[in-house]
Alkaline shock response membrane anchor protein AmaP
Amino acid sequence: MRTALNRCVLAATGLALLAAGTWLATADPALGTRMPAWWPELPGDVTFLSPARVLDLRSRAWWTPTVLAASVAATALGALWCARQFHGGGRSLIALPAPGSTVRARALEEAVARDAAALDGVARCRARVLPRRGRITVRLHLWLQPDTTPDAVLPGVTRLLGRAESAAAPCPVHGRVRLSARPHQVPHVR
């Protein structure tokens, strides 16, 4: 969810900046007459920084290195942030015991979630597989059907995590299970 939201914000910001830049680059001086009444009206020969002020700033020793450093820092931070967005979306590969074989973490998540949802007493399941430094953490969130006790489901979950550990044999598997109960569906009479 965070990655999708970040990408949407990034895309919206980019489109807004692109539209504003295109508008400014192709703006006709006659657009000034079509601006809203509250928009400040500037004479045509006024700029953000006058040529005299630009020359004054350029003559100072600190100006050029400061502008260059700020530009490089902003560009590097923006590029790093963009790269981190793409890094979060790609999931890791898990090495299997056979030489040269791997499995995607997402595929293992889907298999574990499907098997957990098939257990008696489980209404729904969400799984997350996190491979880290030689071990795998499997997080399961199970929604139990009404009138199902956790004691009835936990042996099946233990067997399921044992199968996941045998599938990822060189790596130890640590399981974290969160149980939630689905409320009874009471029919409403009107």
